[in-house]
Amino acid sequence: MGLGWRGTGGAIQKRTEESWYHLVALLLLCGFWEAHTQTDDGKSVYFWETGPWGRCMGSDCGLGGSQSRAVWCAHVDGWTTLHTNCDQAQRPSNQRNCFRVCDWHKDLYDWKLGAWNECVPVSARTFGAPRQFTCSGGEEGIQIREVGCILKSDESPAEDAICEYFEPKPRLEQACLIPCPQDCVVSEYSPWTSCSKTCGTGLRNRVRSVLVPPLFGGAACPNLTEFQSCKPGPCTGPEGMYSLRVGPWNSCALPQTRTARQVKRRKGKGQGLRERAGVKDPETRELIQKKRTRNRLNRQESPFWDIQVGYQNREVTCIHRNGSTVGRNMCLTRDLPLTIQSCVLPTDCKLTDWTIWSPCTKTCMNPESPRGNRTRTRQVLQFPVGEGAECPLLEEFESCEPQGESIPPCATYTWRTTEWSDCRVDTLLSQQDRRRSNLTGLCGGGLQTREVYCVQANAELLKYLNDLREKDKAGQTQKQQKPSVPPLLSITFQITASRPVENKLCEGPIPNRSQLCQIPCPIDCEVSPWGAWGPCTFENCDDQAGKKGFKLRKRQITNEPTGGPGNCPHLVEAVPCDEPTCYDWQLISLSPCIPDDGKQCGSGTQIVQVQCVNSNGEKVERNLCTSNPTPEPVPCEVPCSRDCVLSDWTSWSTCSQTCSSKTIEGKQMRTRSILAYNAGEGGSLCPNSSALQEVRNCNEHPCTVYHWQTGPWGPCTEDPSTSSFNTSVGVPPNSDGEVPCSMGMQTRKVICVRVNVGQVPPKKCPDGPRPSTMRPCQLPCKKDCIMTPFSDWATCPITCDAAGIAVKKKQSRKRLIIQMPSNGGQECPEVLEEERDCEVPKICPGFRWKTHKWRKCQLVTWFLRQDTPGAQETCGPGIQTRAVSCRQLDGTQADISECLKFAKAMPAITQRCQLPCQDDCQLTNWSKFSSCTADCVGVRTRKRSLIGRSKKKDKCKNTQMYPLSETQYCPCDKYNAQPVGNWSDCILPEGGRVESILGMKVQGDIKECGQGYRYQAMVCYDQDNRLVETSRCNSHGYIEEACIIPCPSDCKLSEWSNWSRCSKSCGSGVKVRSKWLREKPYNGGRPCPKLDHINQAQVYEVVPCQSDCKQYVWVAEPWSVWKVSNVDLKENCGEGVQTRRVRCMLNTIDGPSEPVEDYLCDPEEMPLGARESRLPCPEDCVLSDWGPWSRCTLPCTRSNYRVRTAYTIRPPSVGRECPDTTEKEPCSLNLNCFNYFYNITDWSTCQLSPNAVCGGGIKTRMLDCVRSDGKSVDIKFCEEMNLEKKWQMNISCVVECPVNCQLLEWSAWSECSQTCGLEGKMWRQRSVVQASQGDGRPCPSQMEQWKPCPVRPCYRWQYSPWSECRVENVVCGHGMRFRNLSCFVSDGSSDGEGSLVDEELCSSLEVAVDGDKQIRLKESCVLPCPGECYLMEWSDWSSCVNICAKEAGVDFASVQVRSRAVLAQEPENLLLCPDQEWESQPCTGGECFEYKWFSSIGPNSTRPLIWCQRSDGLNVTGGCPPMNPPEDNSSCDPPCLMPKSFCSEAGICMCEEGFTEVLSSTGQLDQCAPIPILEIPTAGDKKGDVKTSRAINPTLPTTIQPGRNGRTWYLQPYGPDGKLKMWVYGVAAGAFVLLIFIVSMIYLACKKPKRPQRQRQQNNRLKPLTLAYDGDTDM
Length: 1675
Description:
mainly beta; 5-stranded mixed beta sheet; 4-stranded antiparallel beta sheet; 10 helices; elongated
């Protein structure tokens, strides 16, 4: 259809500047529109259009709503016009009633979803007819379903708008995949059979089987049989043409009774002759015999069986080889087969009706617990007999929940725990820790354990509810009263231990069975050094009469110990002394020397300044010292100008001894030196050198030191003076967590001890510092032992021996200790487990079938067999029956339903029998075999003999037919044992451990290494290589071999080295100690701690330390005598030098004690060892040495000064002056003036107690005083400045405990993974209770162990192969085939065929083959007659095949198939052959195969051989894609095997329609590529459907390639590599540009020019005309 311009009658205005637009418009427009109100056929071109219905509006819910829509008149071309142009009579309504939906309608209406319909191909829906295409993987299809809105109450349909108000309408169609038709796939032919005849014309057959059945409309299976005539040769004699054929047995029927037959006989023959008296026919004799034995037989009858013996017959016909029936006389046979036989009339199983449902096994209410079950049963009224229908299930189960009121809640179970054991540190010690040998005093982090057990959580509640119901029942029987019990909400349970139950009843996480704990480490007492000995004083200054005196020295507690100061060593030592005094005068100072008589020099005195002090050196009132004389003034000397000048005495040195004895005396010394010599004759002379030194005795007290020594505090005992009871009610716990109950007393021993001697009488020690011997204490409460009640008795396993006698077993019960006794509480009983004998049942539970004797063999009724040979004899085949009853194992009668449920399969109650005829040979049963004299070399025999007349018959004497003895070799019991399988894991001996089902313990130190054993299974074979019990080989089933589980070795470090010396002699430094790596861990031992990063072999511990700045001091000896260098012999004065010795000494409280290395003292403070100065001459002024410099005041500025002074010792003579006695210098920062500040050190590592392994410790840091020049100085400098101390010096810390991995004990060995065979394994597991922490030993990798099970033979019932079809005495027809049920033994492997063994070995097994209890040992069969065409036996099931689409990744089904092919013997009978058969069944695990064509050319053939092959390499027929046509491929060389290819008449491979050829470099067809598809979306389809245009026959003939007529393009769009050529892209781009240009031109030509507002017409409401596009591609 062309495009047209449809206007409203307005003309196109011409403009000169737009003239070229008109030219374009004329080229594009095909015609003009003419306005007509009628079409050519007379129909109106106007019609009514309607819009969609609007929303339903209204005030009421339901049907009272209304909705409206727009209605307008339109032209057939789509534009809108006036309403008057349309027929008003046909105008649609614009309003209607509707159903107004409200929110509450959501519960009334819902969508109803129909089932998906069959998948329909998209092509069939799109184009109306299926188009021919090649299926690849599957065809896309669409499924539809019905979806409608319904009213839920009656499912009546409703408007979709109601449901759409709440939920969008579900989809009505969905994509699906239609599998490709699967053609039938058959195998290759078998080899040809031999010719069906040995002479004449016969047939050879070859057959094949179905591998994949036809599915999804695939091609049917081809013929499975191929026939070929054969002629072995001409027949020399007459050919056998006739065969006797036996028909099938008819159904079993009851013969007519004698009375009925007599009535028939009378009617047919009239009155017959009366029989002579005393003569009976065989039938009468049978009836009499039956009456005689009826009562005896009926005593064994069971009401569950209705056994009726009937008869069945069959036809015997003679047939020709062509299949036609002829007279029997044509078949020559000596003995005709049996045509009538006894049978059991089939009776179906009859059952009672179902009983009512039993109560639900779940009798309590708990929605979370599993549902219960209820059952109903039915009884057997009549068991099936013969071929009757078997009985269906007699018991039916269904899940249930208890129904009704007052259903108690279900018992709930929860975990409970015992109390934690004592905290133990030894479990955290490593192997190398020497503290393992001495576990006393360990503290810090430890481990404690507890047991976990399961209890019933709501036992008390259930007991209360049960009691409540019992009281309700009692109250209702007596009076209608409510029981006087407290309401449920006021139940108060007595707190008692719950009874333990089996752990498997508890669910949820198991509580921790171990946890870290803390044993507080005792704080040791730390004391200061001893102070100096005090003065000799009375013990008690208030009572001084006649008392001896003591000198005391004391020390203080610097660190308070755990448990108070009573655990510290003695703090006071005493020495007896004479002349004690409590108060004495203490020298404060001496005044300057004042000469006597007011002279300037000479002798004088110094006034003494004293104060009164007590024995502790404390100042007291002066009147307390009045008993002692006041010290006198001290004489002194002021030298005159010409006198010798001496210095002041030095202080007394430290006493050389701490005490005195007969051989030891303490001495002190002081010295002075000469400052100036005298002036010869006029002045006092200088003393000699001995007078410059003084020595005095010191520490004259004897070396007998006494002190009080205390013993440890005894246990806290009850104080008899208090009457409080030992109870713990309302008393808060003490610091140890124990609840104190009352006050008690503790005592200790206090003795007087003489140092280095031992105990002395108490009077030797002063009474004042005597420690107390008693103190009050708090008694902890007594804790009694708390135990759980005994658990319930374990269930008694009932086991029976072979004789059915119950074996005695024992049952036990246990209880657990929840709380251990302490503090004198009641002890726990010793018996934690009780055991008793189980009650043995009188009758061992079990049931068995009891079979009764077989009854007499019943033949076919005489009147039915009277025409058969030997009918006058009572002989031939028959049926015999027997009764079966149910018994308990002890033989007592039981209900037959018990045997149906618990016993093995019911024995047969009928069997065929044979009554011997007179001509038959009758023999006795075989005797037992004789005993063997020797195994393997001897023989054993058994015998039987002929009976009666058989002894005289010649045919019975034929020992080949009827052997009378059998001989066989004696059983050769030779057994061979050999190992099998792998060695097990190395398993440690268990040590007789008994598993507990009640409590779960954690073994802290379970033996996990050492010598164990590994096992290998032993297998025992007999001489025939059959598996037998291992006991036959005198083996217990294993080979044991010792093995070693290597013990884990922890990381081993050396002991800590000694602490190094503090890095600083003054202030804060660090001290270090280290450990060295001695041995790395192996076999899962504890890992090493983090080593240092330098050599990975050392562990350091660094802690801050504080050195006393006065610990080491410089000690200078007195200056030597002046050595004057420029000596004036007369005056001995002038320039000179003095020297002295300066040493570094250790400072103690008594003063410097011993010299040490000089580097320990501060070199800056070292006194001068020599000095140069001028020795004053006579009459010169002599000054004392300079005093110390005064301290500079802060801040340090040079405007401040420090000074030092000296004083005049000898004034100068007249005319001479003394130098300045004061010297000053400016204060300079860091030279003589310093600032001071605190410095804080880093935190130390976490310091533990020496006896702790881990846990809580302390981190410390030091405060140091640092001078402004960076030097550490004594802390007093900072303290004097009152600097703020804002730091915390100690914080607590935790060292992670090295917790070893803790495991539960090994579980019990599991059941064997196989009940028999060689590959059975037993497993046991253990689980982690506590994962390793810190540097603890990690968990071992082996969490489960296995060992082989003892090898047991696998016995099973197995069918033998079916015998050939047997038809008695004839050639063909309906017969029977048989098989045996035998006992086989195997080793349990999948490929083990097994060996035949005695049936006794399978006697304990249920009679079933591969789980099928229906044992079929015979079945009917058909033996084809000569010349007959017949079906073969079923082939084996094919392998499982998965029907799939690999391209789509979809699996449709897995299937396997078997088939029956036809075998023909006569060419004439081919038309009478039956149809071949196949049957399929679903399967699992099939493989997805692909099928491809293959070809090859034989060495002697020019035509290629083509075949189809499956991807597993199997050659098949069917499955490969069709070749077009396959027979034409023979003319193409190589054949056309490419998809979509075919062989042309010229012998060239071409491509099908829609595909183009892609050639290789040699000009051969490489592939068939699809021709590109042009997809054009249509404007009218909102779903975006596409119309497909494919090029068809796009080429013209060419002469480039001979034979390719009409199929090759002049312009090939594809290159040799199969890709599009560049010119294709260029053409596509040009076409796109052209299309854009055309669209632009159309738009400009059709654009409507704007009109002025005044020219608007009246019909401006009409819609503008639009360019109509019908979606066609041919515009």
